[in-house]
Amino acid sequence: MRNRIVIGLAVLVVFLSSFTWSGWFGKKVDYNSEVKPILNKHCMGCHGGVKKAGDVSFLFEHEMLEPGKSGKIPVVKGDADASEMIRRILSNDPDEKMPKNGTPLTDDEVGILKTWINEGAEWETHWSYKRIEKPDVPSLGNIWNLFGLLPVGDATWAKNEIDNFILQKLNEKGLSKSPEADRATLIRRVSLDLTGLPPTEKEVSDFESDKSDNAYEKVVDRLLKSPSYGEKWTSMWMDLARYADTKGYESDGGRSMWRYRDYVVKSFNDDKPFDQFTIEQLAGDLMPKGKDVFPKQENMIATGYHRNTMTNNEGGTDDEEFRTAAQIDRVNTTWEVWQGTTFACIQCHSHPYDPIPHEDYYKYMAFFNNSRDEDVWDEWPKLRFYKGEDSVRVERVKNWIKQYNPKQVEEVTQFMNVMEPKINAHNFIKGDQSTVLLISYYGVKDKGNARIPQVDLTNAGSVVMNMSTKAENAVLTLHLDKLDGPVLSQIKLPSRDTVLVAPIAKVSGKHDIYLSLNSPKAPEEWVRITWMSFQKELPGADQPDYSQIVADYATALTRSTESMPVVWEGKGDFARKTNVFVRGNWMVKGAEVKPDVPKLLAPMPKEYSRDRLGLAKWIVNRENALTGRVIVNRFWEQLFGKGIVETVEDFGSQGSEPTHQELLDWLAVEFMEQDQWSVKKLLKRVVMSATYRQSSKTDKDKLEKDPYNIWISRGPRVRLSAEQVRDQALACSGLISKKMYGPGVMPPQPDKIWQSPYSGEKWTLSEGEDRYRRGVYTYWKRTAPYPSMVTFDAPSREFCQSRRILTNTPLQALVTLNDPVYLEAAESLATKMLKRGKTPEQQLTEGYRMLTFQPIGQKNLNVLVKIYKEALLSYKKKPSEADSMLIYGKVKSPELAALTISANVMLNLDNVVTKE
């Protein structure tokens, strides 16, 4: 009797726990989930950040409580009947009824708004902008397993906390979990996800035969240690970094940025903490100095992230306009990648759907506005990599300065490494006999002149100048304050392209400097000046070897070295003021603003510097509401094909609602606190979950209830990325190269894809193993990206792209059936198949297994055999066509040609280009 009473009480407790007090007494209207969507749908178009019709806005709480142009208050807390919003919505007067010329609100929508106002019109911050608090992990205990005491049901299925959250949702939605995928499918899935490459046959066999409890974990650990891991995740990051090997815009000339790509590969492989990874990319030039009081080379290379912006070399363009465009791109990209917010909206007006005012855009842009790049043809500043004798010269100069004035080492080292600070010649104000040369630079003839405004000459003792001319005996004179003013320096110009160092008279303060050219021997020859820098003279002028040191300094700066564009902060006179652009127009300046972050998010700590370094630290600060969520969601999307927030680029009120918000927050807190921003630990946690390991097979019930698998009742089934489709073909055919790093390579692509009328650049086919390297190393031209990757939805990388929207077009089949890369892979695969069986059936069965690691069904085998036999018959009739088909190997036969056709078909199969 007592046992029955205990069981009865337990059932009653469970029954009561399924209700909430709000279920009994009614719950309050939720602003974020119920009210905000109605306002965004019906009201914000006219009463938001873009427009404030009738002086009414619902973007900020204080605005909706203030009288509009009519003098009436839109929302009166606690009194819907007194609220002008409700009166206008219910009005029958066509001149008053809201929304004006829009779809009327439904009765349910009106009811929600009225109830919300009567309940006090409580305003809430959107969920994603609230500080991330770690939620409790749902319990898997229930009456059937005696609240976790018995090892049955969900409790035995779950592998880690992720599964608890997923199971809770599945139970709510009336869905069931799926069993674990078979081992061959599972290792192929996790290998493709973590390394971007399929497993080898031996790796599959070893996993299938390993009966230990931690067999799968050993696979995961091995994959996370593989060098291929960094290459896979770099492919994802390159879209976010808008990485390319060219400058963009119409001329789209080459750019040496590959060291940045290699930095990303190494960072992922080293499992560099993501917060450090962030800071280095956004502010590597401002981080603590390395040897010779210059930032570490690795940190400088990392700043290439924001030098992946485009440079416009078209003649007649305004350099300042496109410098500004680059700054805007940096702001928008930073917000999209780390903050998941459509911040670009605020460039022209306050955000129409989220409470971010217009001026916040320019306060944020002020962090970036001091970068020294100015849209010049040579893309300065660049980090220079000295080698050989040039490196020896640099060391001689540094050692000399250390001996005679150690305090000067930093500025000289800085200039030799990035050639900053300097005045680019497009800032000269042209006078007589002057023009623009090489798109950005100053050209002057005999009797010509120009003015360089407001140069600080305090402590300056020399001018360092890059110039070029064919004129002999030309003399450049620098005057102080006016064209016939005191002479600062008179410089005899050599008739070549060089950097020269000349002494100047000692003067203090800021002055206009006038230059004039006297070139009587060749009056029609131009002198081109690309930049000038007024510096302290090198120390030790009274020493016998001084002239040689000055020559070494000039020679080192003149010599052409390997280099890459980097970000460098302009300070002092090279710092810029930032103004609001009225309506987003860069030519109409509004109020001046100082660097700051939006009030919507946590404030920047007072001890943080108000520059990019402080900003980067704020972005990865624990108090920042967005970064942890956004980054975790981004990696989740890569594994499951869909983010917990599907709109990975938009966490605002117009983005998709999270399917598992508590899971997202839990993962974000774990990532920041427990994992210390370790991406490998995050990925391991996800792929170790039972959720990830589920079979992708489904049934009619699940397809009806969850057609897009947003509740994850089954494993992910997603087409491979553009890079993976190609890499898999090379890997399975045995062609792929394991070579890492270095300049971009040019594997086979169709002729006449590149049209480079300005530079005459050609797609030069790479030789040897370079043609078989992974897709991440393929040379990327923005105006003509590698065509087979574009067909599989890779972006042009002119701008940041957070996710690739997967398409399915006939062009994709045409690529895998006809592209030279896939034809060569098919021939190589066929050669391997030929050795695996005596009959066509055996060979085709083996080929299918090498691609999918699964046995082939008889129906599919019959189709492939038919293809093989038809091809074989054709090639036996016309052996010359077999020779034309087999152009990569030495062996030629109708049988191999027919098998190559069959292999080519298999490379195109849905379950080959799909991750099951």
From TrEMBL:
UniProt entry tagged with the keyword Transcription regulation: no
CDD domains registered for this protein in UniProt: CBM6_xylanase-like
SUPFAM superfamilies: Cytochrome c (SSF46626)
Lineage top rank: taxon: Bacteria
Pfam family, one: PSD1
InterPro entries: Cyt_c-like_dom, Cyt_c-like_dom_sf, Cyt_c_Planctomycete-type, DUF1549, DUF1553
Residue ranges constituting the Cytochrome c domain according to the UniProt record: 30-121
GO function term, MF aspect, one: metal ion binding
Keywords: Heme, Iron, Metal-binding
Name the record gives this protein: DUF1553 domain-containing protein
